[in-house]
Design a protein that fits this description.
single chain; about 230 residues; alpha/beta; Elongation Factor Tu (Ef-tu), domain 3; Rossmann fold; 2 domains; 11 strands; about 20% helix; about 35% strand; binds flavin-adenine dinucleotide
Length: about 230
Amino acid sequence: MTNSWQEATVVSVNDQTPDFRSIILKPKKFYDFKSGNFVELALRPAQGKLPRTYKCYSVVSTPQEIGGIEVGVKLYKDGALSPKLFKFKKNNKLLMRGPLGAYFVWELSKRDTVLIAGGSGICPMISILRQYNPGLAKMYLLFSTKQGSVYYEDELNRLCSEKNINYVLIQTGKNGRVNKKIIHGRFGNLIGTDTDFFVAGPTGFVQDVSLWLRELGVEEGSLKTDDFET
Ligand SMILES: Cc1cc2nc3c(=O)[nH]c(=O)nc-3n(C[C@H](O)[C@H](O)[C@H](O)COP(=O)(O)OP(=O)(O)OC[C@H]3O[C@@H](n4cnc5c(N)ncnc54)[C@H](O)[C@@H]3O)c2cc1C
């Protein structure tokens, strides 16, 4: 891992929905990382200056994907950085730092895993699902997102079917919001077993879900949260 800024080139962009695109970036130097890590991205500042605005983006790709570092970006039309990232094209350059992050990290193991993602919180989960080996342990995914904003929809359906992942999609506007009863109903029987819980997404979502999990008896050591601060 590194804390220094380096130049990265856009290899490709893929507009998945009107408010979400994935971007593959090729940094000058690749560093080791784990699923759950994030990179910081910034526009290139004037020569000799440090970037003023930079934001974190979870790595979607896996360490085995050597063609580039993939990130997924949700568009905030009035945001400082994401609208600019939506203008990027192949071969454009920006600055990247990382991968970073030591806490929200998933590694192959024999422990079962529950992933609970809100909106763009699906990004680090895709990296985990790509790496997951169904021969080792069980995997559960709950993805809550707005109707029409099912990011990585085709890949999710394919991975969950191929790897026998227990997947539920909750689209607010169609199925309502996630609540404690839903979390208890789907995962209550896993609490107290060898299961790790990963929660990622906007602040309110992460706060609510992690509070419910703690109230239901999930121990601190089994709960990892990634608060996107949005
Ligand atoms: C560890 C981590 C991982 C992350 N991973 C991802 C990821 O994989 N994908 C992803 O899309 N995002 C991710 N994020 C979020 C990302 O870093 C940015 O916060 C997000 O892209 C918004 O940045 P922005 O500059 O476009 O918008 P911002 O300028 O941050 O604005 C976001 C929203 O807040 C509002 N806002 C900002 N400032 C104010 C203010 N002063 N008063 C009122 N409203 C305000 C804006 O109007 C806008 O609606 C992650 C964040 C963290 C911390």
